């Protein structure tokens, strides 16, 4: 069990399990997280709803960060941006309080991890801007719905992630290389996987490369930089998608005095349908 | 003939016609505009390339304007954002100079039209941020390619535009009501028109309403607020799309000390393919 530093209004207890929350609506998942009843990961919860990567940063860096995300829409698809100092994100969910509604946060100071917490109420400040970015859960769900196997889900692992040699388009102090995920796909389903994932521009879209890992600067598929290695079976080809760890790395490298992200797998669960035309609540 | 106030490097002459530029690549269209050889509209030029609405505003308003556009993606799809004070837009075209590469601009000061010019070199300032937004040419081309008639194109008119009663999601001083365009579509092709236009989120996407104009606050389809009225024939239904005049109106209402837009129909012609997955040049 991971030791959590618990702060703010939440108490350190887990009274609701992941299984308990299966089938619960997004607002109930957020509610359990908000009260401290649930501090686990959000994979598989609030099926059909958009889940989001989170980046919170001071307003003076926000324009450049939005420009950076606009220029790198595949790793950094913007799905919601809050007002400065306002912890609600009304276009993503009717009652979101971004200070409490994510089950685990990482607080970075001057480019280094400072703390991992379940509540950022006492870190929140009037100059902070919350930015929500799309996440691969959305297109993975669509692949599975369409009969395309996703190995790391089948085997209960984390997706393998790799630092590529693909340059990001910089903006201000934000730039670097793209992080990609790899999923082995049966050869005859690669085109279908491309078509399906392309329908989700809010969730990394179509693959950025297929096949030989060296074409994007990956030396060894059995040694991911993050996550777990997965087997590539006969008749399968490695397929690479842009990854939401990219903006986290870029924020880290930018060395901001403070920025806050979700912890991996502990996403913001929105009320927006993951297959909606836009990520703005009607 | 409209009297143009010509400023900066361009001279007042039109040595190249619209017909001369048909079939020319985007860079040649921009080149003819840049040198002052062409000052006309861009409809039908650089076929297959993205054309863009343009908004240029001071940096201190840019974060709120980007938030506004993100919250209203159907009328205001962001396709490119420049660095502050930098007139290039390298993600949209390799040689763009936004001060000269649009054939007609409108300069607004304190919320009122100040001048209409063919060059903004002497208005440009180090604190200005250029923002390019998608335009309806993209999905209209796709409708026509797929055999769906577009009345105002058939009849050589401007698309009819209406102020709707649909509230925009505000950000900072930006907000108001959505402007919509109307195209009469044969009843049996409405679903197809919806599916086709939905594939272009960078160009207003799917319709926002179909049928009775009163449902979105339009009193009289024969009296558009901008553009030209078009006939609705037997067997056709009026279909409404979000319109790129929306951000222009919102900017005007915001009363910024200065902002600059393209003049209607005089769009920024990009090198990006209009059916590319993203609006970022590879």
From TrEMBL, chains A, B:
Top-level taxonomic group = Bacteria
Q: Which Gene3D superfamilies match?
A: PSTPO5379-like, PSTPO5379-like domain
Name the InterPro entries on file.
D-Glu_cyclase (IPR009906), Putative_hydro-lyase (IPR038021), UPF0317 (IPR016938)
Q: Which UniProt keywords apply?
A: Lyase
EC number in record: 4.2.1.-
Q: Which Pfam families match?
A: D-Glu_cyclase
Q: Which GO terms describe its molecular function?
A: lyase activity
- Kindly give the PANTHER family that the UniProt entry links to this protein: D-GLUTAMATE CYCLASE, MITOCHONDRIAL (PTHR32022:SF10)
Q: Which family does it belong to?
A: Belongs to the D-glutamate cyclase family.
- Name of this chain's protein: Putative hydro-lyase SAMN04488026_110811
Look up and give the organism this protein is from: Aliiruegeria lutimaris
Its taxonomic placement starts with: Bacteria, Pseudomonadati, Pseudomonadota, Alphaproteobacteria, Rhodobacterales
């Amino acid at each position: 069990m991971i030791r959590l530093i618990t702060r703010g209004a939440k108490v350190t207890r887990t009274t609701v399990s992941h299984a308990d929350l299966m089938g619960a609506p997004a607002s109930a998942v957020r509610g359990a997280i908000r009260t401290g009843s649930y501090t686990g990961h959000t994979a598989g919860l609030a099926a059909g709803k958009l889940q989001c990567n989170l980046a919170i940063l001071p307003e003076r860096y926000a324009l450049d960060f939005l420009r950076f995300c606009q220029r790198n829409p595949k790793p950094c698809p913007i799905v919601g941006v809050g007002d400065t100092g306002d912890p609600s994100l009304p276009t993503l969910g009717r009652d979101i309080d971004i200070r409490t509604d994510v089950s685990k946060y990482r607080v970075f100071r001057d480019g280094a991890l400072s703390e991992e917490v379940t509540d950022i109420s006492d870190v929140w400040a009037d100059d902070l801007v919350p930015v929500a970015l799309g996440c691969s859960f959305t297109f993975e769900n669509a692949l599975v719905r369409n009969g395309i196997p996703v190995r790391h889900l089948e085997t209960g692992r984390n997706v393998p992630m790799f630092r590529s040699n693909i340059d990001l388009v910089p903006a201000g102090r934000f730039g670097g290389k793209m992080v990609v995920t790899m999923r082995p796909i049966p050869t005859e389903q690669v085109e279908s996987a491309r078509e399906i994932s392309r329908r989700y521009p809010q969730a990394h879209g179509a693959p950025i490369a297929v096949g030989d890992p060296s074409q994007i600067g990956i030396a060894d598929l059995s040694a991911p930089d993050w996550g777990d290695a997965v087997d590539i079976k006969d008749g399968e080809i490695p397929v690479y998608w842009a990854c939401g760890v990219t903006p986290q790395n870029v924020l880290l490298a930018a060395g901001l005095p403070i920025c806050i992200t979700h912890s991996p797998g502990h996403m913001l669960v929105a009320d927006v349908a993951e297959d909606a035309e836009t990520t703005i609540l009607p």
